[in-house]
Amino acid sequence: MLAIERQEQIVSQIRRNGAVRIHELTKQFGVSVETIRRDLLELERQDCLHRVHGGAVGIAVAKQYHRLEERTEENPQKKEELSEYAAGLIREGDVLMVDSGSTAIAFAKMLAEEFERLTVITYSLHVFEILKKKEGFTLYLCAGAYLRDENAFCGQWALQMLEQFHAKTAFLFPSAISLQNGIMDYDQELYHLQRAMMKHADRSVFLADSDKFEKSALLKLADVNEAVTFVTDSGLRKEILELYQENGIEMIRGEQKQ
């Protein structure tokens, strides 16, 4: 097989699956690791992909921004599924920080169903309204300027209150994730609050449905590295899952239903 034919097939797989792994490509084409690396280098020069450790990912496309009421209607089953898997990271009595957004609503409903005693710090009015019905929950609402579009509080007052706390786990809900570009979101009003949550928790866990991987957004919250954990649904492609794992990223994915 000519190099150009092999490279065309690699590009096709990237478009179909979002990622390729060097190990799998060497077996598929019966060539050396060095040959595949040269192919990926040439394709990167042509802006067909981005090389990462262990393979390559597609060029991250921008995730379209939608208002909260629209996002709430998107992928409800995926949000419910990944929220259930995130429950496995929580124990009764834990202290949590919870971000805002449409996935936060599904996550808060899961907390209310599965736990009787938690301390939750949030700036999301949706999260607060869902959890206030639980008598065993201790809630802290970091209030400041009201951000109507996100039904959340923001600004310096909310940030100052948030920074007085420390949590075991911060649960955040980004708009896009990319090995090359990092963990990203859109809302500039909430950016500093999200960053503060990551700073004031022992562990940061990012819940994102499978459609958000290898996408891009306006603001970078953090790098994708060994310090973060992702929870996603069973729809995440195997190629992307394995490539992230090969880069040392902790990935918790729902199981594919038979």
UniProtKB/TrEMBL annotation:
Coiled coil: none annotated. InterPro entries: Carb_Metab_HTH_regulators, DeoR-like_C, DeoR_HTH, NagB/RpiA_transferase-like, Tscrpt_reg_HTH_DeoR_CS, WH-like_DNA-bd_sf, WH_DNA-bd_sf. Keywords: DNA-binding, Transcription, Transcription regulation. It comes from the Bacteria. The keyword Transcription applies. GO terms for molecular function: DNA binding; DNA-binding transcription factor activity. The keyword Transmembrane does not apply. SMART domains: DeoRC, HTH_DEOR. It holds the Pfam family DeoRC. Residues 3-58 form the HTH deoR-type domain. This is DeoR/GlpR family DNA-binding transcription regulator. It comes from Gallintestinimicrobium propionicum.
